[in-house]
Write a structure and sequence with these properties.
Blueprint lengths: L50 E11 L5 E8 L3 H5 L5 H5 L4 H9 E4 L7 H5 L3 H15 L5 E5 L6 E5 L9
Antiparallel strand pairs: 1-2, 2-3, 4-5
């Protein structure tokens, strides 16, 4: 039975039976159990890393003949992956998506004042392939592979999770 609050116009308040007090267990001469060790301090969260340095295998050669190899790529945002889809060049040729996307996320390349898709489209094919792979690694928390186990022989192996082009997964 539970105790209910009195309402205007309601009958008398009904009390639930009060339980009998329970006797405490008898004290023994055995020592009290040791206190549990204090929990370890929580690990300190590391700040989110948003920029990643890279070095191109060949390097971008500008109009003056200067080779630029060292650069920085930032994490891509959803906007970075959506905006290029409106680009006419990407709509006419979907392979151009990686050029426009990389032009948005590369923040520094050598001593160039600015990096844009025009610079990316004039890179050597090996550097473009390197940057596409690097983009996948950076934006997939460092890797695009997963360890799995064969269902037949239980042998472990890795599979590639990344898509075939930038912007796909």
């Amino acid at each position: 039975m539970r105790r209910t609050a009195a309402r205007a116009g309601a009958g008398p308040v009904v009390d639930a039976p009060v339980p009998e007090p329970v006797a405490a267990p008898e004290q023994t001469s055995a020592p009290a159990p040791a206190a549990a060790p204090a929990p370890a301090p929580a690990p300190v969260a590391q700040p989110l890393r948003t920029e990643f340095p890279f070095e191109l295998p060949r390097g971008y050669v500008d109009d003056a003949g200067t080779v630029h190899r060292d650069g920085v790529m930032r994490l891509a945002t959803a906007r970075d992956e959506l905006i290029p889809l409106r680009d006419v060049r990407v709509q006419e040729n979907p392979a151009y998506l990686s050029v426009v996307l990389l032009g948005r996320v590369i923040t520094r390349l050598g001593t160039l004042a600015m990096v844009h898709d025009g610079i990316v489209e004039n890179m050597f094919a090996s550097d473009l392939a390197f940057l596409q792979d690097f983009y996948r690694q950076v934006n997939a928390e460092g890797h695009t592979r997963a360890s799995v186990q064969c269902p037949h022989c239980s042998e472990p192996f890795e599979v590639e999770l990344g898509g075939s082009r930038l912007g796909e997964s």
